Amino acid sequence: MRHRLAVVGTVALGLLAIMALAAPVLAPQSPTAIDPTTFQGRPSPAHLLGTDSVGRDVLSRLIYAARVSLSVGILAVTMYVVIGTSVGAVAGYYGGTVDLALSRIMDIMLSFPPLIIILFAVSVFGRPSLWNVIIVLGLLGWPAVARLVRGQVLALRQQEFVQAARAIGASDPAVVMRHLLPNAMAPVLVAATFGTANAILVEAALSFLGMGVQPPTPSWGNMLTDAQSLTVLEQMPWLTVGGLG
Amino acid sequence: MKGLRARLAGAIAAVLIVGLLLPGGALGGPKSEFVAVAGMWSPPNNFNPINTDSSYGFYCVRFMFMGMVEARVENNQTKFFPALASRWEVGADNQTYTFTIHPRAAWHDGKPVTAEDVLFTLMTISDPRTETNRGAQIASIAGLDARGKRAAGAQLGFRILEPRKFEIKTTTPVDPTMFLEMFGANVYILPKHVLGDVPPDQLARHLFFHNPTVGNGPYKFVQYKTDQFVEFVLNESYHLGAPNVRRVFVRIIPPTTMLAQIERGDLDVSAGFGIGEVMIEDWDRVKGMGHVRAVSFSAPGYQYMLFNFQRPYLQDKRVRRAFAHAINRSLIVNQLLKGEGELAEGPIPPANPYFNKKVRPWPFDTARARALLTEAGWDFNRTIILRVPTGNIIRERSADIIRENLIAAGVKVEIQKADFPTNMAAVRAGNYDLGLMGWAGPTDPDVSSQYRTGGQYNLSHHSIASLDQVLDEGVKTADPAKRRAVYDRFQEVFADELPTITLYYPNARTAVTKRMVNVLFDASGLFDFQTYRWVAGTQ
User: Fold this and answer.
1) Chain B contact present for A215, CB below 8 A
2) Which 3 state secondary structure label does DSSP give B170?
3) Which pLDDT score is estimated for A110?
4) Which pLDDT does position B3 carry in this prediction?
5) Percent of chain B, pLDDT > 70?
6) Are B413 and B407 spatial neighbours (Cβ–Cβ below 8 Å)?
7) Is A209 in the B-facing interface, judged by CB distances under 8 Å?
């Protein structure tokens, strides 16, 4: 209870997770079912948040979209945290030429604007899809984590308890796994939390541009593509709720 | 600190100077009766009159290049008007056509347009090494094959009578309306004195088609700022009289910002059907603007769904009819297009003189669709792929409706979207089950290139003998009344066989500021908006 903000964040995330898991129960309708009588319909008792450009229930799509966004966030971040931690630990622990080579690779990857690379990678991967977005984000996100871990490991390596472990003959993997990583994890967890939020935003951006999750699967980003016209922005605010997600 | 400030001042000055040098009208609002600004969605790929690979290119080419005649549909009949030719005669045999070029018709560099230029253009198009999409337009000329190419040693049916007079012979007698539209209106003449020495296989990459300074039309090319705008200036010595609007800018504007540009008065004309329209959501708002006329009319283009005939399970016509019953096409027109469209079962548009009113679209009937599928032995566990090109927002949305409709009839469908070229490559390779596509053709009802066995645009890869037979008869029938009867029958056969499903004919929607007068609204000659007739006011 000491960190009020943290509690608020946890509760919000928990609610979101429950929403994603219980989507079939919570959603009033199927997210792909078309109501032939109202396209871009105003919010009404039948459709609490109105209908989208092809007559689908916006509320149901919003709820189902949470699944997409959370799975992208969690899976992509898990993937790059694993890669980043391994690379960072190796670079930090061995130092020298290994560190130099790995660090330059990280520098190169960090020097490109991420969204452009992601767009490029998605189009090279073939057709855009949920899995491609996850894989691309997972494969491109690791250098930031690797840097964090490398820095931590560099510092920890000099500490007495690590020196001691090495002196009694512990193997390299044992030192890294048992002594270094557990102590380097705190900043990584923070980075992963922010990374999840960021991955959700990148997914939304990609889907908005048509390179991410493909319709009819709803995602907060591709729901927003409906809201590109001035008329929609000014007179049909229910079509912009994807952006609130 | 001082250095930085000086540099900043320098930069600002540079921006101001560049701003002053940019032509007025290109960026700001149109200010005078001398300047008009049109907007289209995508940039032209080139300005090649015999190979513009997109309607965007055509829109620009039509400012600068003319054919022999201009075609317009009036009172349900195609009529022809002078362009480069001042007179033309049709021989009694319906096989000999004589054209006289206007005595003052000239290239933009002052050289006269002659029969030699026409011969050069035809020889270039019919050369097998030339990259061109005009082949089908000249295929009826003697000495050429069905794709408009010259076999080795073949003699082209062309004779120069006088420097400005020539005669063309067709292989067989043809309907003069068809010949005049295809050769007369759709073949733009190239300057022999500029391109005569270019080898045909290098022509498509020639710099002239990015900087076409020698045209023969009412406007001259000034410049193209890549992906920004194309600028034209009037041709004062145009033989049919100089246009009223002195300078025209064709700007490239994405669909989502078109409305704002029109509202602010930065744009005079949206280029129109399929290449520059405001989004359908914004249409009502455009109608409410005091300074704009919002015009919609039936257009010659349609959206359709391909069946891949290489798949054995799509070869049964009961299956294809079941799909036609399953898709709620009136929902697409009424809701997605907000009523701005029409339905028809076939590739001849409802607004076309050859349209057969008796052929009705198969009605929306999910139960009937399911029954037909069962009868044809459809495997209800099979998942088929619907390929959708991105870009056309309405078409992308219609895919979601089609998928839901087909699922309701028991057919499992997966949508695969890709950009237009990628999608086209997949369709050409036969790597699909169903595909969405758009088409807009000339007024003449010959659609062999799409629907005959082996046609250049037969994307369904189908071969239907009854369809081939009636299409061949249509091309060879010279008598207009008999020809009409042939195409009435063609539309019946088409609706029965359904090589493709015609989804809808969207209306063309154009927004024009009220200061513009004489803007042509019906696109009867395809993408031939006769922009040289524009008159701009100062309102």
Assistant:
1) yes
2) strand
3) 87
4) 55
5) 92
6) yes
7) no
Neighbours of B242 (CB within 10 A): 15
**Secondary structure letter of residue B510 according to DSSP:** E
CA torsion B258-B263-B266-B267 (nearest 10°) is 60
Integer angstrom CA distances of residue B181 from A3, B47, B67, B175: 78, 21, 10, 10
Q: Above 60 in pLDDT, residue B539?
A: no
Confidence of residue B15 (pLDDT cuts 50, 70, 90): low
d(CA B145, CA B230): 37
Total-model pTM: 0.79
Kindly report the backbone phi and psi dihedral angles of residue B272, in degrees, each rounded to the nearest multiple of 5, phi listed first. Answer: 115, -155
Is any Cβ of chain A less than 8 angstroms from the Cβ of B401?
A: yes
Residues in chain B within 8 Å Cβ distance of A232: 281
Q: Got the DSSP string for B440-507?
A: E--SS---HHHHSTT-TT-TT----HHHHHHHHHHHH--SHHHHHHHHHHHHHHHHHH-SEEEEEEEP
Among A residues 34-63, those touching chain B with beta carbons less than 8 Å apart = 34, 36, 39-40, 53-56
Phi-psi region of B105 (alpha: psi -120 to 50; beta: other; left: phi over 0): beta
Which distant-in-sequence residues (6+ apart) come within 8 Å of A64 by Cβ?
Answer: A23, A27, A31, A218
Q: Which residues contact B146 (CB under 8 A, 6 or more apart)?
A: B139, B448
Compute CA distances B410 → B323, B404, B407, whole Å: 11, 10, 5
For chain A, the average pLDDT equals 85
Contacts of residue B391, defined as CB under 8 A and 6 or more positions apart, other chains included, come to B419, B420
Which of B256, B336, B416 is the closest to A39 by Cβ? B336
Please give the Cα distance from A157 to A154 (Å, whole number). 5
Mean confidence (pLDDT) of chain B: 89
With tokens 């317009």, the residue in question is B72
Asked if the C-beta of B400 comes within 8 angstroms of chain A's C-beta atoms, the answer is yes
Q: Which residues of B touch A230 (CB under 8 A)?
A: 259-260, 282, 285
Average pLDDT of B422-435? 91
Please report the pLDDT score of residue B161 as a whole number: 97
Q: In the numeric block, which tokens belong to residue B477? A: 């029938």
For residue B146, report the phi and psi dihedrals to the nearest 5 degrees.
Answer: -65, -20
Token look-up 């010595």 returns: B237
pLDDT of B2 above 50: no
pLDDT tens-digit series, residues A101-150: 999 999 998 888 878 888 888 777 766 778 888 888 888 889 989 999 99
Q: How many CA atoms lie within 13 A of B39 on its CB side?
A: 28
Q: Give the 3-state secondary structure percentages of chain A, helix then strand then coil, rounded to 5.
A: 75, 0, 25
| A232 touches B: beta carbon within 8 Å | yes
Pick from A33, A55, A127: CB nearest B335: A55
What is the enclosing helix (H) or strand (E) of B280? none
Q: How does pLDDT run across B264-289, given as a tens digit for each residue? A: 888 999 988 878 888 888 888 899 99
CA atoms of B359 and B345, how far apart (whole Å): 7
With a cut of 60, say whether residue B255 has pLDDT above it: yes
pLDDT at B99 over 60: yes
B408 inside 8 A of chain A by CB = no
Query: Which residue, A37, A36, A61, is CA-closest to A48?
Result: A61
Looking at residue A229, what is its pLDDT?
Answer: 76
> How far is the C-alpha of A175 from the C-alpha of A170, rounded, in Å?
6
* pLDDT tens-place string over residues A201-226: 888 888 887 778 877 888 888 888 77
Helices first, then strands: H and E counts in chain B: 17, 21
User: For residue B397, which residues of chain A lie inside 8 Å, CB to CB?
Assistant: 53-54
CA B460 to chain centroid, in Å, comes to 20
Instruction: Indicate the length of chain B as a whole number.
Output: 539
